[in-house]
Amino acid sequence: MGASQTRYQELYHDLMGRTGFSVEQIKNLHYRFQQLSENEDTISRENLESIPGLAYNPIKRQIIEAFFDKRNQHQNESGSYSEIGFEQFVMVMSHFRPAASNMTDAEKEAVRKEKLRFLFNMHDTGHDGTITLQEYRKVVEELLSKSENMEEEVAKDIADAAMLEVASTNVPNMQPDEFYEGITFEHFEQMLKDLEMESRMYIRFLGVDTSTIHCGKSNS
């Protein structure tokens, strides 16, 4: 028991240095991880699939995949995990941590860029550094899927029109016969330059308040 507790304390302090979370916040995340994994060492996609709060989310698939995307581990890796442990879980959750009030402007900008990269990765399902028309169309169709009387062809047209607008903004001198390969991260960053991130990058479905990383007793 003592050895196990010491091991966790060492892990908590290691994660504190890598994420900026406090030890108490990491303990709260560990509690939620154990709930989700049913006290196992790892979480699978099936564990997250069963969360009631995700059931009707139009981008449920992208949210779940974000937890298994190696690009979200603050490392230069690509690909996906089949399952993740507590350490990987915390590293993903760190993308939702608000910027600390004592951060410099440069540090806050780095945190913002990290959050944007996380969002970009959610849409770049091909892991090729570009959000293609097909990927963008899929997201738009899923977001519109809950709209009543929204036909698939209409959703496709909306996605295509939105991508055309993005192309005209990012490549203003593009000729009619040119092909727009897709949204790069630089384009994505420019598109969202005025977006306030702090109030938007949060998670509800895990029963976690990401403004404080306090875990409630929700079963969702």
From TrEMBL:
It is found in: Cell projection, Lamellipodium; Cell projection, Ruffle membrane; Cytoplasm; Membrane. GO terms for molecular function: calcium ion binding; protein kinase inhibitor activity. Keywords: Calcium, Cell membrane, Cell projection, Coiled coil, Cytoplasm, Differentiation, Lipoprotein, Membrane, Metal-binding, Myristate, Nucleus, Protein kinase inhibitor. Residues 111-146 form the EF-hand domain. Its main location: other. Belongs to the calcineurin regulatory subunit family. CHP subfamily. PANTHER family: CALCINEURIN B HOMOLOGOUS PROTEIN 3 (PTHR46823). This is Calcineurin B homologous protein 3. It comes from Anabas testudineus (Climbing perch).
